[in-house]
Structures are given as C-alpha cells and as structure tokens.
Amino acid sequence: IRLIALLAACALPAMAQTPPRNGTRPAATAPAAPGLTLAEAERLLVERNLTVAGARYGVDAARAQRLVGSSIQPMQFTVGSTAGQFNEYSGTVNGVRAYSPANNLAVGLTAVIELGGKRSLRMRTAEEQNGAAEALVLDTMRGQVFALRQAFFGALAARANLDVARATLASFERTEGLLRRQAELGQSPEGDVIRFRASRPPFEADVAAARQALAAQVAAMAALIDGDALPAGGGAAYEVRGRIDRSPPLGLTRAELADAVPRRADVIAATRGTAAATANRELAEAGRWRDITVGGTVSRSRLQQD
Fold first, then answer.
1. How far apart (Å, rounded) are the C-alpha atoms in residues 163 and 3?
2. Which of 80, 127, 128, 161 could be disulfide-bonded to 210 (CB atoms 3.0-4.6 Å)?
C-alpha cells in the first residue's frame, strides 16, 4: 500500500505538467482590472481627459493671438533696378544695353499708420479671448467631472444590481436543488422540478443584463478618463470601488448656493465670452477709420535716353 501511494505521489506532478491529448490548453485568465475610487478617477481625468487637454490648447492659441495682436504692422522696404534697355522700330530690336545697379537704383520705405485705436482694440480683444479660453478650461473640466461622477455612480448602481441578480439566481438554484432532492426522495413528483427549471431563463437574463449595464458604465467612465484605457481584448478597464448606501450631507444653504452662482465656471465663461464679443465688435467698428500709408523713395538713374 505504501509503494502504491509513493508511486501515485510521484506521478501526480508529471500528470499536472502533461498537456491534454486533444492539443487544447486552458484559457489564460485575464488580468484583474485595477481598482479605482472616485477621487482617483477625478485625478486621472484631470491628467488624461482629451476634451480638457483640447481646451488647454485653446488657451495657448489665445495667448499666441494676443502676441500677434499687440504687434504693429511691419514696414515694407523695396529695392529696384533696371537690368537692361532696348528699342524697337517696326518690329526690329536695336540699341540693346545692359546696366549695372550702380547706374540706376531705387530704394523705398513704406509704413502704415493705423487710426481709430485698432492696435489697442486688437490687444483688448485678444486679452478677453484669452480670459474666455481660460474660463472654458474650467467649464470643460466641470462638465467632464460631472459626467465622470454620473458614470461612476451609475457603475456602482449597476454593480449593486448585478449582485442582486446573482443573489436571486443563487437562491433559485438552491430552491431547485431542494426540489430535486425531494424528487429523489420521492416526496414530490419530477414534473415539479422540470416546471421550476423552466423558469430559470429570466433570472439568467437579469444577470446578463446587469453585467452588460455594468460594463457599459465602466466603459463610459474609462472613455472619460482616457480613450486609450479601453481594453482591446474585452473585459473591464477599471473596477469601481465605493458605496452608494450612504451620502454625506452637502452642508450648504440656498443662500450660499445663490451666492456661488456668479463664481460658477460656466457663468464666468459666458461672461468673459460676452466681453470678448463686445471687444471684437468695437474692433470691427474701428475698421471704418481709414489708415494712412506713409512712404518715401530715393532713386538714382543714368539710363540712356536715345
């Protein structure tokens, strides 16, 4: 008996390492999704969200427009010279001469003087647009954080629904086991077990629907955090961590909420956008003023006149 037990103990590791005869291997388990709390999700959104990043690039563009608007129109410097001269009589060309720049040269300088305060209005418009772009970043971040919180709490609710659906299915399976046991003991007919088993698909459908809803909410949350975070081979990008059974009180009165309205990011963005539009309108009205062009030219010529 001891010899048989020893041989069996030695054969078990070899059997565990031997692949199946049909050539199939066990499916590799997918890596566990990283856990994510609401605070961590908001931090990642601020760092990786593509919409917020695009709004930040808008601030850089507005600053560049301010530099362009603060500059004056450049002067134009011209240089001219006659390289050659010829005469034509009845279709015959004669008297061809070539000249060097020392024999003839013209130098000119032209400057545009803007009237109506166009340069100051351009600077003001660019500054207002810069402020509107900065406020738009905060408003964009506010909207994205709100959407993230909706997806996060939606994922928590979907996970709770999935737990309930799984618990209901487990209770159904226990009841089915009891009925099967009673049928085996002869205490109930086999038809009761068959009829009870026929009501199983709705419970399985509830579990599948809850699992699909959870995956959709997690995918929406992952898309808000980072579009590249969605797994290519399926599965969940993150595993939400949190509870929705307790919500802390806001601790704010209606008066405090009313006082906070002017400091909202969307209100600030709209106000600055209105100021930028007003400055742009004034700049357009300043276009009624005609600009003055001042120029001078110095020329020297020794060309033949025959």
1. 50
2. 161
β partners of residue 301: 104
One-letter amino acid of 194: I
Q: Is 191 exposed, middle or buried (0-12, 13-18, 19+ CB in 10 A)?
A: exposed
β-sheet bridge partners, residue 57: none
Tokens 């110095």 correspond to what residue?
298
pLDDT higher than 90, residue 196:
no
Q: In angstroms, rounded to a whole number, what is the distance separating the alpha carbons of residues 282 and 102?
A: 50
pLDDT tens digits along 245-296 = 766 677 778 888 888 888 888 898 899 899 999 998 998 888 888 889 999 9
pLDDT, tens only, 51-100: 888 888 888 888 888 888 777 888 999 998 888 877 777 777 777 778 88
- Give the span between the Cα atoms of 265 and 273, in whole angstroms: 12
> 128, exposed or middle or buried, with CB in 10 Å at 0-12, 13-18, 19+?
buried
How far apart are alpha carbons 75 and 109 in whole angstroms? 7
Cα(4)–Cα(65) distance, rounded to whole angstroms? 87
Q: Tell me how crowded residue 238 is: count the other CB atoms within 10 A of its CB.
A: 21
Read off the tokens for 82: 């006659």
Q: How far apart are CA 165 and CA 210, in angstroms?
A: 7
The pair phi, psi for residue 170, each rounded to 5°, is: -65, -40
- The one-character DSSP state at 101 is T
Residue 26 has φ and ψ, to the nearest 5°, of -65, 140
List all residues 6 or more positions away from 204 whose beta carbon is below 8 Å from its beta carbon: 169
Closest CA to 55 of 149, 146, 139, 147: 139
Looking at beta carbons, which pairs linking 274-277 to residues 24 or more positions away fall under 8 Å?
A: 275/128, 275/131, 275/132, 276/125, 276/128, 276/129, 276/131, 276/132
